[in-house]
Amino acid sequence: MRKLLTAALTTAFVLPAVAAMAAPPEDVVKARQGYYSLLGLEMDGLAAMAKGEVPYDAEAAKAHAANLQVMTTYSPAGLYAPGTSKADMPGKTRALPEIWENFPKVGEKGAAFREAVGELASVAGDGLDALRPAVGKLGGTCKSCHDDFRATDF
Amino acid sequence: MANQGKPEAGAPAPAHGRTVTLWDPVVRLFHWALVISFFAAWGLGKFGPDQMTLHFYAGYTIGALVVLRIIWGFVGPRPARFTSFVKGPSAILAYARHLRDRRPSNTLGHNPVGAIFVVGILLVLAVQVGTGLIGDPEDYVNAGPLADMVTIETSRSALGIHELLGNLAFFFVLFHIGAIAFYKRWKGEDLVTPMITGKKVIEEPAE
């Protein structure tokens, strides 16, 4: 009887409350990792050209850069919902709690990233010698943020 | 070495001491090249630019030096050989018991306790180079050249080990420098000059 009552009360009060809350942390993490996977896919193609693994292709480089530019117009605020750090969800994410403790610095890293994407987009079609340093600089902005705000391992 | 342990011909012996040839040029060159490349690699890794090309070059240099030293440890002159300085626990303990004596050890080579450091730092650096080669920080520009040969999970773990061992190696080096200062100040034994000139002055007890 008591169990039944608990179940009934849970169904009546707790579940609607959960449903009204923001997206479940697992979904936020999944979306966040998806966002960076998209960035990574474009970077992969650019880095392969920069490293000479595939021949330079101006049109492909421009397409990668244009996609990255689209990504910079996406507001990542929702991807950094509270309660979704590595401390909250160990083994699920490498996002360090420092992100939520120092948003201004995270913002600076983001600005550097957007700036590097802008520079890359302006030179992506100008040949391999122009592309290479721009890809290097962009990758550097990835590292700069990873160093401070992402754990090396899960 | 022909004149190993023998008085240096032609050089006047200092008062209360005789000079012996200890470290061959390869060991000395290895040592100081490693000092430079280690601090370069460590400093660039910690504080260097986000495009880590120079860190990579420093790491390749360390890798080459470690390989050279290991080969030299088998074919080099006697003081450079592993068989001459890697000792078992009893010899290590016997040496350690006299570590606090206020007199020079006069060891002609690496002493049994120092040998632990030599083998330890070579091992740490070998693993450090290996994990650096397969590590991938997922920034598309600083991936180790062999990262593609392993899974991304392995690359991540390698990078985690790489960061830990970088700190460990740094503390090893601090400890090494501390030990040299201890030998100089407490035991009155100069370990630095022989690593520069190759020659060691053996202080003999005053008669």
From TrEMBL, chain A:
GO biological process: electron transport chain
Gene3D superfamilies, alphabetized: Cytochrome c/b562 (1.20.120.10)
Alphabetized Pfam families for the sequence: Cytochrom_C_2
GO cellular component term of the entry, any: periplasmic space
Signal peptide coordinates: 1-22
GO terms for MF: electron transfer activity; heme binding; iron ion binding
UniProt PTM comment: Binds 1 heme group per subunit.
Keywords attached to this entry: Electron transport, Heme, Iron, Metal-binding, Signal, Transport
Binding annotation for heme c: 142, 145-146
Name the UniProt record assigns to this protein: Cytochrome C
Upper taxonomic lineage: Bacteria, Pseudomonadati, Pseudomonadota, Alphaproteobacteria, Rhodobacterales
From TrEMBL, chain B:
GO MF annotations, alphabetized: electron transfer activity; heme binding
Cellular compartments annotated: Cell membrane
Source organism of this protein record: Pseudothioclava arenosa
Domain annotation Cytochrome b561 bacterial/Ni-hydrogenase: ranges: 23-198
Transmembrane helix in keyword set: yes
GO biological process, one term: respiratory electron transport chain
One GO CC term, this protein: plasma membrane
Protein origin, superkingdom: Bacteria
UniProt keywords, alphabetically: Cell membrane, Membrane, Transmembrane, Transmembrane helix
Protein name in the entry: Cytochrome B
Bilayer topology annotation: Multi-pass membrane protein
InterPro entries, per the entry: Cyt_b561_bac/Ni-Hgenase, Di-haem_cyt_TM, Hydrogenase_cytochrome
TM regions (residue ranges): 26-45, 57-75, 112-134, 164-183
A Pfam family reported for this protein in Swiss-Prot or TrEMBL: Ni_hydr_CYTB
Chief location category: membrane
